[in-house]
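testing teh design pipeline on a random one, pls ignore if ur not involved
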């Protein structure tokens, strides 16, 4: 069930990223800006999976400027984000766009490989990781620091976490049905909060979300994370 979800997300990620890259290469800044958060949604739902592949696949796709070390080659979504929102497209934009498409295709090939499997404990761990991502780095707005499309990422992380939990649900319900109910309630709370920031088919710019509002989001994510963090222990092989 979960592998199928990961395959679906990467299958959608590739054409969405290709559309983003095509807009960049045409110099269509408005088009690329519109496509940027949409393409990232498919990636953010399954990011812990990308992190499990070799050769720094996740950093190649998703490294933020703050994490670039001297001597690192900065590639992926965020370097193009900076060019689109801050500096204007640079001479390396086309090459970066091509590289990004190649990297997401590498991820797609990896998850479609019949040898690639993921066990339920790892899935539950991934559900937790996605929430930690929001709590530790995204709530401050440092993930999409140039575009302020952070709320798209929040929602994608929450959706990915929810699907991961759903895929281990039969074991969870058998061993601790009450925890399952608490997790459901916390997911509902977070979704209701995110709904306040919807605009059109997306979200408001994150720089319009005030500090108290960010703290409210943070508390809801922490409460959810606290429940989800227990799932791994419950479903671990006994």
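output:
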């Amino acid at each position: 069930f979960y592998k199928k979800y990961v395959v679906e997300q990467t299958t959608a990620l590739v054409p969405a990223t290709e559309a983003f890259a095509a807009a960049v290469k045409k110099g269509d800044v408005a088009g690329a800006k519109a496509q940027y958060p949409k393409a990232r949604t498919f990636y953010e739902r399954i990011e812990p999976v990308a992190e499990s592949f070799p050769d720094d696949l996740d950093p190649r796709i998703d490294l933020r400027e703050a994490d670039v070390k001297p001597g690192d080659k900065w590639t992926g979504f965020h370097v193009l984000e900076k060019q689109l929102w801050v500096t204007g497209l640079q001479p390396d934009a086309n090459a970066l766009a091509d590289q990004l498409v190649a990297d997401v295709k590498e991820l797609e090939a990896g998850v479609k490989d019949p040898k690639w499997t993921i066990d339920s404990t790892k899935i539950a761990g991934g559900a937790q990781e996605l929430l930690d991502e929001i709590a530790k780095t995204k709530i401050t707005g440092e993930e999409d620091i140039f575009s302020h499309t952070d709320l798209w990422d929040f929602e994608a992380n929450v959706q990915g976490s929810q699907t991961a939990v759903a895929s281990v649900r039969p074991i969870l319900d058998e061993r601790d049905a009450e925890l399952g109910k608490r997790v459901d309630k916390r997911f509902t709370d977070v979704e209701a909060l995110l709904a306040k920031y919807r605009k059109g088919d997306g979200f408001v710019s994150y720089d319009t979300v005030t500090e108290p509002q960010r703290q409210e989001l943070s508390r809801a994510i922490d409460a959810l994370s606290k429940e989800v963090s227990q799932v791994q222990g419950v479903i671990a092989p006994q």
